[in-house]
């Protein structure tokens, strides 16, 4: 672009340059054409011969001799007008894929059509577009790129539509039958486009029925080029956190990221999960819209079984890796995956709590390993740690060794926790589902609460008492827990019987102290109950106690002649026995 020169002479650089190719320098110029800051000293008769637009300006001018024409709104600016002026003067210049769109738009603006003059600039540029520029994928992309500065006239002339149509057609063929290496070379060339034209290209590819993997390949290349600092740079040097969220850079990154997410193919599994995780972290970093983040979280949760610990760490830490960044997205992703697995289990008429899928088991292992990595962060609260750990169903963990490791790391990184807080941390794991090595470690771990240590020791005692192999004991964790409950129930029942026996002894002692009157009343009650004929025998305190003691009688099955068969018919109840203090 030519710029004005300060000094006595107001002659522009454009005038000096045009003076080199104007062949009629002997004839003084009679018109000054202004294009922005550039001025061109030309001849009206040369311009009017090719341009109907300039002819109209001259004829419709109110001035008797028009000496200045302003064409600042010509598409392509001073450089394009200079080439159009050369064409009017018959000076040769090169039409390329880079300037053909601008020349075509300028020719339309200047009305340099074949109706006004044969073989004019409009026809020349149209021939080049059809025969050269739009004959290849690379040419169509370059022309489409040049149209970004030529709107809306390039749109009105259908140049954009033609470029998109040719580019998508040839890209589809190239993706199916590569003509060069690397096979995705065309995605690199496509990445030069602005996001608006790139979006039109992707939309056209989808309408043509292109495979999701092809569309995804183009999107990945584009995102890595335009969001390189956020997507590909994991060292933190590219994403400067000191930049304000309201800065032009952050606004541009936010708009670009949201546009890219809106272009993702409908097939959820078309994009690799590590790329989606990078996009989600970028969306959180630039404070993208909630709809953008939710879309990425749903896509990741669908294919979470392929996630690695590093992928989850990408979501969790800042670019410098020094502090936790966003655990809420991780929680939503894991929760979404678990809900999906539960719905599948219900649809298949299965019990999700009893049997978990292989995908759920893999995710459980990954989550436990992930917890072990973030447990070292001092700003990780117990609620957040437990919240993520409890998202994984209990049935997804055959053993809790990995979870125990994460708990131990958390306790070690947070030494100031009290007993109650440590119990809360340990509540996420089951001590009965630890392996032998883990139980040995837990029994000697001073960081664990006493309750967890006792559980581990109790399990080992049961194993030693039963003499069952370790592999079989791992399968009997639920049975062991049930046995513990039964032991507690029996202990309570024994305590109840012991209390009843104590009450009976106290009652007998009271009878012995009360004298013969109490014994007489007791005998009368016994006699009356014996003469009751066919009526049911009313239960007494002794009968209820004897029933409970009978449960503890070791000879109940072996001897029929116990005291319960002794009849009281031969006892004379009218005369008191000499041993007044005996009730036997």
From TrEMBL:
Family: Belongs to the NPH3 family.
Record pathway: Protein modification; protein ubiquitination
Region of interest (Disordered), ranges: 515-584
Positions with biased composition (Low complexity): 518-529
Metal-binding found in the keyword field: no
NPH3 domain segment(s): 184-463
UniProt keyword list: Ubl conjugation pathway
Name recorded for this polypeptide: Root phototropism protein 2 isoform X2
Keyword DNA repair applies: no
Domain BTB as annotated: residue spans: 29-97
